[in-house]
Design goal:
Structural class: mainly alpha
Low-confidence stretches: none
Distance between the termini: 75 Å
Helix content: 55-70%
Length: 85
């Protein structure tokens, strides 16, 4: 192994560098998938769960399932009612 390293030319070093970069990039992707991408009600969401939620939301939007601003305001006005009672 040491002999090969000592005999390495620029092209060989570029190949090794590309392999190390690809390995590091894949490791970062693997690590990112282990860490939460967000939270819902305090529970962590994985990348796959987040992608599924986005796909569902896009599908609902494509089907016209949405709320108007006034509908959201009306609903929001009820959120804090009763919390001080």
């Amino acid at each position: 192994m040491h002999y090969r390293i000592e005999q390495a030319d620029e092209r060989f070093l570029q190949v090794i560098y590309a392999m190390v970069e690809a390995y590091a990039h894949q490791h970062e992707l693997d690590t990112d998938m282990e860490h939460p991408m967000g939270y819902q009600a305090g529970e962590p969401l994985t990348l796959e769960e987040l992608k599924a939620k986005v796909a569902r939301a896009e599908s609902q939007a494509d089907q016209g399932m949405s709320y108007t601003v006034s509908e959201v305001r009306k609903e929001a006005s009820t959120w804090l009612k009763g919390s001080t009672e």
